[in-house]
Amino acid sequence: MKKFLAVALGVLTAIGGFVDIGDLVTNAVVGARFGMSLVWVVVVGVVGICLFAQMSGRVAAVSGRATFEIIRERLGPRVGGANLVASFLVTVLTLTAEIGGIALALELASSVERRLWIPFAGLAVWLVLWRVKFSVLENAAGLLGLALVGFAVALFQLGPDWGELVAQATRPQVPAGEPVPTYWYYAVALFGAAMTPYEVFFFSSGAREEKWTAKDLSVSRANVLIGFPLGGLLSVAIAGCAAVVLLPRGIDVSTLSEITLPVALAGGKVLLALVILGVVAATFGAALETALSTGYTLAQFFGWSWGKYHRPAQAARFHTAMAVAVLVGTLVLLTNVDPVAVTEYSVVFSAVALPLTYLPILVVANDREYMGDHVNGRATNALGLVYLVVILVASLAAIPLMIATGAGG
Amino acid sequence: MTTRRSPGRVAAALAATLLVGLVGLVGGCAYGPSSADTSAALTMTAALDEAASAVEVGLLVVELVDTDRTTTPVADGTLRDALLEVGSASGSLADALPPRHLQDARARALDAVADATAALTDARAWVNDLAGGSAHDLTGALSDAADAVDAVTADLEAAA
After folding, report:
1. Alpha carbon distance A376, A395 (integer Å)
2. What is the CATH classification number for the domain harbouring A300?
3. B interface mutation test: which of A107, A113, A117, A255 has the most B CBs within 10 A?
4. How far apart are CA B112 and CA B114, in angstroms?
Protein backbone atom coordinates (compact mmCIF):
# COMPACT_ATOMS: atom_id res chain seq x y z
CA MET A 1 0.00 0.00 0.00
CA LYS A 2 2.84 2.35 0.90
CA LYS A 3 4.51 1.61 -2.42
CA PHE A 4 1.24 2.19 -4.31
CA LEU A 5 0.83 5.57 -2.61
CA ALA A 6 4.43 6.46 -3.48
CA VAL A 7 3.80 5.56 -7.12
CA ALA A 8 0.48 7.44 -7.19
CA LEU A 9 2.02 10.56 -5.67
CA GLY A 10 5.02 10.36 -8.00
CA VAL A 11 2.82 9.92 -11.07
CA LEU A 12 0.51 12.79 -10.09
CA THR A 13 3.40 15.17 -9.45
CA ALA A 14 5.05 14.04 -12.71
CA ILE A 15 1.85 14.91 -14.61
CA GLY A 16 1.38 18.23 -12.84
CA GLY A 17 5.07 19.08 -13.11
CA PHE A 18 5.46 18.12 -16.77
CA VAL A 19 4.06 21.29 -18.31
CA ASP A 20 6.07 24.46 -17.88
CA ILE A 21 5.89 27.88 -19.55
CA GLY A 22 7.77 26.52 -22.59
CA ASP A 23 5.21 23.75 -23.15
CA LEU A 24 2.31 26.12 -22.50
CA VAL A 25 3.39 28.82 -24.92
CA THR A 26 4.82 26.62 -27.66
CA ASN A 27 1.86 24.23 -27.77
CA ALA A 28 -0.62 27.10 -27.87
CA VAL A 29 1.33 28.97 -30.57
CA VAL A 30 1.60 25.79 -32.63
CA GLY A 31 -2.06 24.82 -32.15
CA ALA A 32 -3.21 28.28 -33.26
CA ARG A 33 -1.05 28.20 -36.40
CA PHE A 34 -0.72 24.55 -37.41
CA GLY A 35 -3.69 22.86 -35.73
CA MET A 36 -2.78 19.36 -34.56
CA SER A 37 -0.26 18.74 -37.33
CA LEU A 38 2.72 18.92 -34.96
CA VAL A 39 1.36 16.56 -32.29
CA TRP A 40 3.79 13.93 -33.56
CA VAL A 41 6.64 16.10 -32.23
CA VAL A 42 5.12 16.04 -28.74
CA VAL A 43 4.98 12.23 -28.96
CA VAL A 44 8.62 12.05 -30.08
CA GLY A 45 9.63 14.47 -27.33
CA VAL A 46 7.74 12.62 -24.60
CA VAL A 47 9.27 9.26 -25.57
CA GLY A 48 12.70 10.92 -25.56
CA ILE A 49 12.33 12.56 -22.16
CA CYS A 50 10.97 9.28 -20.72
CA LEU A 51 13.99 7.42 -22.10
CA PHE A 52 16.63 9.79 -20.77
CA ALA A 53 14.88 10.69 -17.49
CA GLN A 54 14.55 7.05 -16.47
CA MET A 55 18.19 6.55 -17.52
CA SER A 56 19.45 9.43 -15.39
CA GLY A 57 17.20 8.39 -12.47
CA ARG A 58 18.62 4.86 -12.71
CA VAL A 59 22.19 6.18 -12.74
CA ALA A 60 21.49 8.19 -9.58
CA ALA A 61 19.66 5.38 -7.78
CA VAL A 62 22.23 2.66 -8.59
CA SER A 63 25.45 4.65 -8.25
CA GLY A 64 24.29 6.76 -5.33
CA ARG A 65 25.53 9.85 -7.16
CA ALA A 66 23.87 12.44 -9.39
CA THR A 67 24.41 12.09 -13.13
CA PHE A 68 26.36 15.31 -13.46
CA GLU A 69 28.91 14.29 -10.82
CA ILE A 70 29.62 11.12 -12.76
CA ILE A 71 29.80 12.93 -16.11
CA ARG A 72 32.48 15.22 -14.66
CA GLU A 73 34.41 12.27 -13.21
CA ARG A 74 33.93 9.81 -16.08
CA LEU A 75 34.34 12.14 -19.08
CA GLY A 76 36.75 14.67 -17.58
CA PRO A 77 36.58 18.42 -16.99
CA ARG A 78 36.58 19.39 -20.68
CA VAL A 79 33.49 17.38 -21.71
CA GLY A 80 31.92 18.00 -18.31
CA GLY A 81 32.64 21.72 -18.70
CA ALA A 82 31.02 21.85 -22.15
CA ASN A 83 28.02 20.06 -20.72
CA LEU A 84 27.96 22.48 -17.78
CA VAL A 85 28.19 25.67 -19.86
CA ALA A 86 25.50 24.61 -22.35
CA SER A 87 23.11 23.26 -19.74
CA PHE A 88 23.66 26.07 -17.26
CA LEU A 89 23.06 28.90 -19.74
CA VAL A 90 19.94 27.28 -21.14
CA THR A 91 18.66 26.57 -17.63
CA VAL A 92 19.14 30.20 -16.53
CA LEU A 93 17.26 31.30 -19.67
CA THR A 94 14.50 28.81 -18.86
CA LEU A 95 14.41 30.03 -15.24
CA THR A 96 13.98 33.59 -16.51
CA ALA A 97 11.08 32.45 -18.70
CA GLU A 98 9.44 30.63 -15.77
CA ILE A 99 9.65 33.66 -13.44
CA GLY A 100 8.18 35.71 -16.26
CA GLY A 101 5.42 33.11 -16.60
CA ILE A 102 4.52 33.44 -12.91
CA ALA A 103 4.30 37.22 -13.31
CA LEU A 104 2.17 36.93 -16.45
CA ALA A 105 -0.26 34.54 -14.77
CA LEU A 106 -0.54 36.79 -11.71
CA GLU A 107 -1.08 39.80 -13.98
CA LEU A 108 -3.89 37.93 -15.68
CA ALA A 109 -5.51 37.05 -12.37
CA SER A 110 -5.18 40.50 -10.84
CA SER A 111 -4.94 43.07 -13.65
CA VAL A 112 -1.84 44.42 -11.84
CA GLU A 113 0.99 45.02 -14.31
CA ARG A 114 3.48 42.18 -14.65
CA ARG A 115 6.53 44.29 -13.87
CA LEU A 116 5.15 44.80 -10.37
CA TRP A 117 4.80 41.04 -9.96
CA ILE A 118 8.30 40.14 -11.22
CA PRO A 119 10.26 41.08 -8.04
CA PHE A 120 7.58 39.40 -5.94
CA ALA A 121 7.80 36.23 -8.06
CA GLY A 122 11.62 36.16 -7.86
CA LEU A 123 11.54 36.72 -4.10
CA ALA A 124 8.91 34.02 -3.57
CA VAL A 125 10.95 31.50 -5.59
CA TRP A 126 14.08 32.27 -3.58
CA LEU A 127 12.24 32.09 -0.23
CA VAL A 128 10.78 28.68 -1.06
CA LEU A 129 14.19 27.42 -2.19
CA TRP A 130 15.72 28.63 1.03
CA ARG A 131 13.08 27.56 3.54
CA VAL A 132 10.94 24.72 2.20
CA LYS A 133 11.84 21.02 2.24
CA PHE A 134 12.54 19.34 -1.11
CA SER A 135 9.67 16.85 -0.86
CA VAL A 136 7.18 19.58 0.07
CA LEU A 137 8.15 21.94 -2.75
CA GLU A 138 8.24 19.15 -5.33
CA ASN A 139 4.91 17.60 -4.36
CA ALA A 140 2.98 20.82 -3.70
CA ALA A 141 3.90 22.41 -7.02
CA GLY A 142 3.30 19.17 -8.93
CA LEU A 143 -0.11 18.54 -7.36
CA LEU A 144 -1.31 22.13 -7.87
CA GLY A 145 -0.03 21.94 -11.45
CA LEU A 146 -2.64 19.23 -12.01
CA ALA A 147 -5.13 22.10 -12.29
CA LEU A 148 -3.92 22.37 -15.89
CA VAL A 149 -6.16 19.38 -16.54
CA GLY A 150 -8.61 22.22 -17.10
CA PHE A 151 -7.27 22.43 -20.68
CA ALA A 152 -8.31 18.82 -21.31
CA VAL A 153 -11.73 19.48 -19.76
CA ALA A 154 -12.08 22.58 -21.95
CA LEU A 155 -11.22 20.62 -25.08
CA PHE A 156 -13.98 18.09 -24.34
CA GLN A 157 -16.48 20.85 -23.49
CA LEU A 158 -15.73 22.65 -26.76
CA GLY A 159 -17.09 19.58 -28.53
CA PRO A 160 -14.65 19.60 -31.43
CA ASP A 161 -14.82 17.46 -34.54
CA TRP A 162 -12.65 14.69 -33.10
CA GLY A 163 -12.28 13.00 -36.47
CA GLU A 164 -10.83 16.18 -37.94
CA LEU A 165 -8.43 16.65 -35.01
CA VAL A 166 -7.26 13.04 -35.22
CA ALA A 167 -6.85 13.37 -38.99
CA GLN A 168 -4.69 16.48 -38.53
CA ALA A 169 -2.58 14.66 -35.96
CA THR A 170 -2.17 11.39 -37.83
CA ARG A 171 -1.76 12.80 -41.34
CA PRO A 172 0.32 15.88 -40.60
CA GLN A 173 0.86 18.43 -43.33
CA VAL A 174 1.97 22.03 -43.50
CA PRO A 175 -1.17 24.22 -43.55
CA ALA A 176 -1.70 26.41 -46.62
CA GLY A 177 -0.08 29.81 -46.22
CA GLU A 178 2.52 28.60 -43.73
CA PRO A 179 6.08 28.30 -45.07
CA VAL A 180 7.70 24.87 -44.70
CA PRO A 181 10.76 26.21 -42.78
CA THR A 182 8.40 27.80 -40.23
CA TYR A 183 6.71 24.41 -39.70
CA TRP A 184 10.08 22.81 -38.99
CA TYR A 185 11.18 25.71 -36.81
CA TYR A 186 8.20 25.08 -34.55
CA ALA A 187 8.82 21.33 -34.68
CA VAL A 188 12.31 21.95 -33.27
CA ALA A 189 10.91 24.39 -30.67
CA LEU A 190 8.30 21.84 -29.51
CA PHE A 191 10.97 19.15 -29.31
CA GLY A 192 13.20 21.48 -27.26
CA ALA A 193 10.27 22.31 -24.96
CA ALA A 194 9.54 18.63 -24.31
CA MET A 195 13.17 17.64 -23.74
CA THR A 196 14.42 20.68 -21.81
CA PRO A 197 17.84 19.77 -20.32
CA TYR A 198 17.01 20.86 -16.77
CA GLU A 199 14.46 18.06 -16.47
CA VAL A 200 17.05 15.28 -16.43
CA PHE A 201 19.38 17.12 -14.05
CA PHE A 202 16.49 17.82 -11.72
CA PHE A 203 15.28 14.23 -11.96
CA SER A 204 18.66 12.65 -11.18
CA SER A 205 19.56 15.14 -8.45
CA GLY A 206 16.07 14.79 -7.00
CA ALA A 207 16.70 11.06 -6.78
CA ARG A 208 19.70 11.82 -4.57
CA GLU A 209 17.68 14.35 -2.53
CA GLU A 210 15.17 11.58 -1.82
CA LYS A 211 17.95 9.02 -1.32
CA TRP A 212 16.73 6.55 -3.90
CA THR A 213 18.46 3.19 -4.13
CA ALA A 214 18.23 0.33 -6.66
CA LYS A 215 15.12 -0.81 -4.75
CA ASP A 216 13.32 2.36 -5.83
CA LEU A 217 13.87 1.78 -9.54
CA SER A 218 10.38 0.39 -10.15
CA VAL A 219 8.76 3.44 -8.52
CA SER A 220 11.02 5.76 -10.51
CA ARG A 221 10.19 3.94 -13.74
CA ALA A 222 6.45 4.12 -13.04
CA ASN A 223 6.68 7.87 -12.31
CA VAL A 224 8.38 8.48 -15.63
CA LEU A 225 6.60 5.99 -17.87
CA ILE A 226 3.09 6.82 -16.61
CA GLY A 227 3.44 10.41 -15.41
CA PHE A 228 5.31 11.97 -18.31
CA PRO A 229 3.07 10.61 -21.12
CA LEU A 230 -0.02 11.78 -19.21
CA GLY A 231 1.71 15.16 -18.81
CA GLY A 232 2.29 15.06 -22.57
CA LEU A 233 -1.46 14.66 -23.05
CA LEU A 234 -1.90 17.99 -21.26
CA SER A 235 0.44 19.54 -23.83
CA VAL A 236 -1.68 18.06 -26.62
CA ALA A 237 -4.85 19.40 -24.95
CA ILE A 238 -3.36 22.92 -24.89
CA ALA A 239 -2.59 22.66 -28.61
CA GLY A 240 -6.07 21.19 -29.19
CA CYS A 241 -7.84 24.11 -27.46
CA ALA A 242 -5.88 26.57 -29.58
CA ALA A 243 -6.58 24.57 -32.75
CA VAL A 244 -10.33 24.51 -32.11
CA VAL A 245 -10.88 28.10 -30.96
CA LEU A 246 -7.99 30.30 -32.09
CA LEU A 247 -6.99 28.84 -35.47
CA PRO A 248 -10.39 29.31 -37.18
CA ARG A 249 -10.50 32.93 -35.96
CA GLY A 250 -7.00 33.68 -37.23
CA ILE A 251 -5.72 34.54 -33.74
CA ASP A 252 -1.94 34.30 -33.43
CA VAL A 253 -0.86 33.52 -29.89
CA SER A 254 1.64 36.04 -28.55
CA THR A 255 0.45 36.46 -24.97
CA LEU A 256 -0.57 34.24 -22.07
CA SER A 257 -4.01 35.86 -21.97
CA GLU A 258 -4.77 34.51 -25.45
CA ILE A 259 -3.88 30.97 -24.34
CA THR A 260 -6.68 31.06 -21.75
CA LEU A 261 -9.42 32.29 -24.13
CA PRO A 262 -10.54 28.78 -25.19
CA VAL A 263 -10.80 27.73 -21.55
CA ALA A 264 -13.11 30.65 -20.68
CA LEU A 265 -15.19 29.96 -23.78
CA ALA A 266 -15.58 26.30 -22.86
CA GLY A 267 -15.89 26.32 -19.09
CA GLY A 268 -16.55 29.87 -17.95
CA LYS A 269 -15.10 31.55 -14.89
CA VAL A 270 -14.63 28.46 -12.72
CA LEU A 271 -12.56 26.57 -15.28
CA LEU A 272 -10.66 29.74 -16.13
CA ALA A 273 -9.75 30.27 -12.46
CA LEU A 274 -8.65 26.63 -12.20
CA VAL A 275 -6.39 26.94 -15.24
CA ILE A 276 -4.85 30.22 -14.06
CA LEU A 277 -4.10 28.52 -10.73
CA GLY A 278 -2.53 25.67 -12.72
CA VAL A 279 -0.41 28.09 -14.77
CA VAL A 280 0.86 29.80 -11.60
CA ALA A 281 1.65 26.42 -10.00
CA ALA A 282 3.26 24.98 -13.13
CA THR A 283 5.48 27.99 -13.74
CA PHE A 284 6.30 28.35 -10.03
CA GLY A 285 7.17 24.64 -9.81
CA ALA A 286 9.29 24.85 -12.94
CA ALA A 287 11.02 27.98 -11.62
CA LEU A 288 11.94 26.02 -8.48
CA GLU A 289 13.18 23.07 -10.56
CA THR A 290 15.25 25.24 -12.91
CA ALA A 291 16.72 27.26 -10.04
CA LEU A 292 17.62 24.03 -8.24
CA SER A 293 19.12 22.68 -11.47
CA THR A 294 21.45 25.69 -11.76
CA GLY A 295 22.68 24.97 -8.24
CA TYR A 296 22.92 21.23 -8.89
CA THR A 297 24.95 21.52 -12.11
CA LEU A 298 27.43 24.05 -10.71
CA ALA A 299 27.85 22.29 -7.35
CA GLN A 300 28.21 18.84 -8.91
CA PHE A 301 30.80 20.06 -11.41
CA PHE A 302 32.92 21.92 -8.86
CA GLY A 303 32.46 19.34 -6.11
CA TRP A 304 30.64 21.64 -3.70
CA SER A 305 28.34 20.39 -0.98
CA TRP A 306 24.83 20.42 -2.47
CA GLY A 307 21.26 19.39 -1.84
CA LYS A 308 18.19 20.59 -0.01
CA TYR A 309 18.82 17.94 2.63
CA HIS A 310 21.73 20.14 3.79
CA ARG A 311 20.97 23.25 5.78
CA PRO A 312 21.75 26.40 3.70
CA ALA A 313 24.80 27.13 5.86
CA GLN A 314 26.20 23.67 5.09
CA ALA A 315 25.76 24.13 1.34
CA ALA A 316 26.38 27.86 1.11
CA ARG A 317 27.79 27.92 -2.43
CA PHE A 318 24.92 25.77 -3.73
CA HIS A 319 22.36 28.14 -2.22
CA THR A 320 24.29 31.22 -3.37
CA ALA A 321 24.39 29.89 -6.95
CA MET A 322 20.61 29.44 -6.92
CA ALA A 323 20.02 32.88 -5.39
CA VAL A 324 22.24 34.52 -8.02
CA ALA A 325 20.47 32.65 -10.85
CA VAL A 326 17.06 33.79 -9.54
CA LEU A 327 18.37 37.35 -9.17
CA VAL A 328 19.75 37.36 -12.72
CA GLY A 329 16.48 36.05 -14.14
CA THR A 330 14.49 38.66 -12.20
CA LEU A 331 16.75 41.53 -13.27
CA VAL A 332 16.60 40.47 -16.92
CA LEU A 333 12.80 40.51 -16.77
CA LEU A 334 12.81 43.95 -15.14
CA THR A 335 14.39 45.34 -18.31
CA ASN A 336 10.86 44.93 -19.73
CA VAL A 337 11.82 42.08 -22.04
CA ASP A 338 8.74 40.13 -23.16
CA PRO A 339 8.54 36.88 -21.11
CA VAL A 340 6.80 35.09 -23.98
CA ALA A 341 9.67 36.00 -26.31
CA VAL A 342 12.16 34.78 -23.67
CA THR A 343 10.20 31.53 -23.51
CA GLU A 344 10.30 31.08 -27.27
CA TYR A 345 14.06 31.63 -27.34
CA SER A 346 14.60 29.34 -24.34
CA VAL A 347 12.95 26.34 -26.02
CA VAL A 348 14.94 26.84 -29.22
CA PHE A 349 18.25 27.17 -27.35
CA SER A 350 17.25 24.09 -25.33
CA ALA A 351 17.17 22.23 -28.62
CA VAL A 352 20.65 23.58 -29.46
CA ALA A 353 22.08 22.31 -26.14
CA LEU A 354 20.44 18.87 -26.25
CA PRO A 355 23.40 16.79 -27.55
CA LEU A 356 25.72 18.13 -24.85
CA THR A 357 23.20 17.07 -22.23
CA TYR A 358 22.04 13.70 -23.47
CA LEU A 359 25.15 12.11 -24.99
CA PRO A 360 27.05 12.02 -21.66
CA ILE A 361 24.02 10.47 -19.93
CA LEU A 362 23.96 7.65 -22.48
CA VAL A 363 27.70 7.08 -21.98
CA VAL A 364 27.46 6.99 -18.19
CA ALA A 365 24.39 4.71 -18.21
CA ASN A 366 26.53 2.14 -20.07
CA ASP A 367 29.46 2.22 -17.65
CA ARG A 368 29.58 -1.00 -15.62
CA GLU A 369 31.96 0.57 -13.14
CA TYR A 370 29.13 2.80 -11.91
CA MET A 371 26.07 0.84 -12.98
CA GLY A 372 27.03 -2.81 -12.38
CA ASP A 373 24.25 -5.02 -13.76
CA HIS A 374 21.96 -2.02 -14.22
CA VAL A 375 23.62 -0.77 -17.42
CA ASN A 376 21.34 -0.02 -20.37
CA GLY A 377 19.89 -3.01 -22.21
CA ARG A 378 20.22 -3.39 -25.98
CA ALA A 379 16.76 -2.00 -26.72
CA THR A 380 17.40 1.08 -24.55
CA ASN A 381 20.74 1.69 -26.23
CA ALA A 382 19.26 1.25 -29.71
CA LEU A 383 16.51 3.75 -28.92
CA GLY A 384 19.05 6.03 -27.25
CA LEU A 385 21.21 6.05 -30.38
CA VAL A 386 18.21 6.81 -32.59
CA TYR A 387 17.37 9.71 -30.29
CA LEU A 388 20.93 10.99 -30.38
CA VAL A 389 20.63 11.31 -34.16
CA VAL A 390 17.28 13.12 -33.83
CA ILE A 391 18.71 15.37 -31.12
CA LEU A 392 21.76 16.19 -33.23
CA VAL A 393 19.65 17.06 -36.27
CA ALA A 394 17.35 19.26 -34.16
CA SER A 395 20.34 20.93 -32.54
CA LEU A 396 22.06 21.70 -35.84
CA ALA A 397 18.85 22.89 -37.51
CA ALA A 398 17.65 25.14 -34.66
CA ILE A 399 19.70 28.29 -35.27
CA PRO A 400 19.56 28.25 -39.11
CA LEU A 401 15.78 27.78 -38.94
CA MET A 402 15.49 30.57 -36.41
CA ILE A 403 17.39 32.94 -38.73
CA ALA A 404 15.62 31.79 -41.89
CA THR A 405 12.14 32.19 -40.43
CA GLY A 406 12.78 35.31 -38.31
CA ALA A 407 12.11 33.21 -35.19
CA GLY A 408 8.92 31.79 -36.64
CA GLY A 409 7.50 35.18 -37.58
CA MET B 1 53.14 13.31 -45.78
CA THR B 2 51.33 16.04 -43.95
CA THR B 3 48.26 17.68 -45.46
CA ARG B 4 47.80 20.37 -42.84
CA ARG B 5 47.01 23.78 -44.30
CA SER B 6 49.02 26.79 -43.29
CA PRO B 7 47.27 29.34 -41.05
CA GLY B 8 47.58 31.95 -43.83
CA ARG B 9 45.64 29.81 -46.29
CA VAL B 10 42.92 29.08 -43.76
CA ALA B 11 42.59 32.78 -43.00
CA ALA B 12 42.42 33.60 -46.73
CA ALA B 13 39.73 30.96 -47.27
CA LEU B 14 37.73 32.31 -44.34
CA ALA B 15 38.06 35.88 -45.60
CA ALA B 16 36.95 34.83 -49.09
CA THR B 17 33.93 33.01 -47.67
CA LEU B 18 33.03 36.04 -45.59
CA LEU B 19 33.37 38.33 -48.61
CA VAL B 20 31.15 36.13 -50.77
CA GLY B 21 28.59 36.01 -47.95
CA LEU B 22 28.62 39.80 -47.53
CA VAL B 23 28.33 40.42 -51.27
CA GLY B 24 25.40 38.03 -51.38
CA LEU B 25 23.76 39.72 -48.42
CA VAL B 26 24.22 43.27 -49.71
CA GLY B 27 23.27 42.21 -53.23
CA GLY B 28 20.11 40.62 -51.90
CA CYS B 29 19.15 43.77 -50.06
CA ALA B 30 19.63 45.94 -53.13
CA TYR B 31 18.03 43.56 -55.57
CA GLY B 32 15.83 46.15 -57.25
CA PRO B 33 12.45 47.85 -57.21
CA SER B 34 10.31 44.75 -57.59
CA SER B 35 12.00 43.18 -54.56
CA ALA B 36 11.43 46.36 -52.54
CA ASP B 37 7.74 46.41 -53.56
CA THR B 38 7.25 42.83 -52.43
CA SER B 39 9.11 43.45 -49.21
CA ALA B 40 7.04 46.53 -48.34
CA ALA B 41 3.80 44.73 -49.16
CA LEU B 42 4.83 41.75 -47.01
CA THR B 43 5.78 44.01 -44.09
CA MET B 44 2.42 45.75 -44.27
CA THR B 45 0.52 42.48 -44.68
CA ALA B 46 2.24 41.06 -41.59
CA ALA B 47 1.28 44.18 -39.60
CA LEU B 48 -2.32 43.89 -40.78
CA ASP B 49 -2.39 40.20 -39.82
CA GLU B 50 -1.29 41.21 -36.32
CA ALA B 51 -4.07 43.81 -36.18
CA ALA B 52 -6.64 41.32 -37.51
CA SER B 53 -5.63 38.83 -34.80
CA ALA B 54 -6.02 41.52 -32.12
CA VAL B 55 -9.49 42.45 -33.40
CA GLU B 56 -10.56 38.79 -33.31
CA VAL B 57 -9.32 38.63 -29.71
CA GLY B 58 -11.47 41.70 -28.98
CA LEU B 59 -14.54 40.06 -30.53
CA LEU B 60 -14.01 36.91 -28.47
CA VAL B 61 -13.50 38.86 -25.23
CA VAL B 62 -16.70 40.89 -25.78
CA GLU B 63 -18.58 37.63 -26.37
CA LEU B 64 -17.10 36.11 -23.19
CA VAL B 65 -17.95 39.15 -21.05
CA ASP B 66 -21.45 39.38 -22.51
CA THR B 67 -22.12 35.72 -21.64
CA ASP B 68 -20.47 36.10 -18.19
CA ARG B 69 -17.79 33.52 -18.98
CA THR B 70 -14.73 35.52 -17.95
CA THR B 71 -13.67 37.81 -15.14
CA THR B 72 -13.06 41.54 -15.50
CA PRO B 73 -9.29 41.31 -14.73
CA VAL B 74 -8.77 38.62 -17.35
CA ALA B 75 -10.89 40.43 -19.96
CA ASP B 76 -9.12 43.71 -19.22
CA GLY B 77 -5.67 42.11 -19.40
CA THR B 78 -6.52 40.37 -22.67
CA LEU B 79 -7.79 43.59 -24.26
CA ARG B 80 -4.72 45.46 -23.03
CA ASP B 81 -2.54 42.85 -24.78
CA ALA B 82 -4.67 43.22 -27.92
CA LEU B 83 -4.20 47.00 -27.82
CA LEU B 84 -0.42 46.50 -27.58
CA GLU B 85 -0.65 44.32 -30.69
CA VAL B 86 -2.55 46.91 -32.74
CA GLY B 87 -0.10 49.53 -31.46
CA SER B 88 2.76 47.40 -32.74
CA ALA B 89 0.97 46.91 -36.07
CA SER B 90 0.41 50.65 -36.39
CA GLY B 91 4.09 51.28 -35.65
CA SER B 92 5.17 48.79 -38.31
CA LEU B 93 2.88 50.39 -40.89
CA ALA B 94 4.12 53.87 -40.05
CA ASP B 95 7.72 52.68 -40.19
CA ALA B 96 7.36 51.01 -43.60
CA LEU B 97 8.49 53.00 -46.61
CA PRO B 98 6.42 51.55 -49.46
CA PRO B 99 6.87 52.66 -53.09
CA ARG B 100 4.63 55.33 -54.56
CA HIS B 101 1.90 53.00 -55.85
CA LEU B 102 1.44 51.42 -52.41
CA GLN B 103 1.19 54.71 -50.50
CA ASP B 104 -2.60 54.77 -50.77
CA ALA B 105 -2.84 51.21 -49.48
CA ARG B 106 -0.61 52.14 -46.55
CA ALA B 107 -2.86 55.12 -45.71
CA ARG B 108 -5.95 52.88 -45.78
CA ALA B 109 -4.13 50.30 -43.66
CA LEU B 110 -3.29 52.95 -41.07
CA ASP B 111 -6.95 54.09 -41.05
CA ALA B 112 -8.17 50.50 -40.62
CA VAL B 113 -5.77 49.89 -37.74
CA ALA B 114 -6.80 53.21 -36.15
CA ASP B 115 -10.44 52.07 -36.34
CA ALA B 116 -9.43 48.75 -34.75
CA THR B 117 -7.62 50.60 -31.97
CA ALA B 118 -10.66 52.77 -31.30
CA ALA B 119 -12.98 49.74 -31.24
CA LEU B 120 -10.69 47.86 -28.85
CA THR B 121 -10.36 50.95 -26.62
CA ASP B 122 -14.17 51.21 -26.45
CA ALA B 123 -14.41 47.51 -25.64
CA ARG B 124 -11.91 47.88 -22.80
CA ALA B 125 -13.81 50.83 -21.36
CA TRP B 126 -17.05 48.82 -21.58
CA VAL B 127 -15.49 45.78 -19.91
CA ASN B 128 -14.34 47.97 -17.03
CA ASP B 129 -17.80 49.54 -16.77
CA LEU B 130 -16.41 52.95 -17.69
CA ALA B 131 -18.56 53.42 -20.77
CA GLY B 132 -22.08 52.69 -21.93
CA GLY B 133 -23.10 50.89 -25.07
CA SER B 134 -23.91 47.28 -25.67
CA ALA B 135 -22.03 44.16 -26.63
CA HIS B 136 -23.91 44.31 -29.94
CA ASP B 137 -22.58 47.81 -30.71
CA LEU B 138 -19.03 46.84 -29.79
CA THR B 139 -19.20 43.67 -31.85
CA GLY B 140 -20.43 45.75 -34.79
CA ALA B 141 -17.56 48.23 -34.49
CA LEU B 142 -14.99 45.45 -34.14
CA SER B 143 -16.45 43.56 -37.10
CA ASP B 144 -16.33 46.72 -39.25
CA ALA B 145 -12.69 47.22 -38.27
CA ALA B 146 -11.96 43.58 -39.10
CA ASP B 147 -13.58 43.97 -42.52
CA ALA B 148 -11.55 47.10 -43.24
CA VAL B 149 -8.32 45.36 -42.23
CA ASP B 150 -9.20 42.35 -44.40
CA ALA B 151 -9.99 44.53 -47.40
CA VAL B 152 -6.61 46.32 -47.32
CA THR B 153 -4.83 43.00 -46.71
CA ALA B 154 -6.47 41.54 -49.82
CA ASP B 155 -5.37 44.55 -51.89
CA LEU B 156 -1.80 44.29 -50.65
CA GLU B 157 -1.68 40.55 -51.28
CA ALA B 158 -2.83 41.20 -54.83
CA ALA B 159 -0.12 43.83 -55.23
CA ALA B 160 2.66 41.65 -53.79
Report:
1. 24
2. 1.20.1740.10
3. A255
4. 5
Mutate to test the interface with A, among B64, B80, B81 (most CBs of A within 10 A): B81
Give yes or no for A259 touching B (CB within 8 A).
no
As for how many domains chain A has, the answer is 1
- Beta carbons within 8 Å of B61's beta carbon, 6+ residues apart: A261, B70, B75, B78, B79, B82, B123, B127
d(CA B44, CA B67): 35
Distance from CA of B127 to the nearest CA of A (A): 13
- The CA distance from A137 to B153, in Å, is 50
Parse chain B into domains and list their residue ranges. Answer: 1-30, 32-159
CB-based contact A32:A252 (threshold 8 Å): yes
With a cut of 50, list the residues of chain B below it in pLDDT: 1-5, 10, 23-33
**Angstrom distance (rounded) from CA B51 to CA B112:** 9
Alpha-carbon distance of A108 to A260, in angstroms, equals 10
User: B40-74: per-residue pLDDT in tens?
Assistant: 888 899 999 999 999 999 999 999 999 999 999 99
Q: A68-107 pLDDT, tens per residue?
A: 788 888 888 888 888 888 889 999 999 999 999 999 999 9
Q: Which residues of A touch B76 (CB under 8 A)?
A: 111
Indicate yes or no: CB of B74 within 8 angstroms of CB of A409.
no
> Does residue A340 contact residue A256 with C-beta atoms inside 8 Å?
yes
Q: According to DSSP H, which parts of A146-255 are helical? A: 149-158, 162-170, 180-194, 198-209, 217-222, 228-241, 247-249
Task: Name every residue whose Cβ is closer than 8 Å to that of residue B2 and which is 6 or more positions away in sequence.
Answer: none
pTM reported for the whole predicted model: 0.89
CA distance B108 to A401: 34
Q: Is the pLDDT of residue A398 over 60?
A: yes
Q: What is the ipTM of this complex?
A: 0.87
Q: Which of A321, A254, A330 is nearest to A287 (CA)?
A: A330
Owning domain of residue A133 = 2-405
Q: A218 — contact with chain B (CB < 8 Å)?
A: no
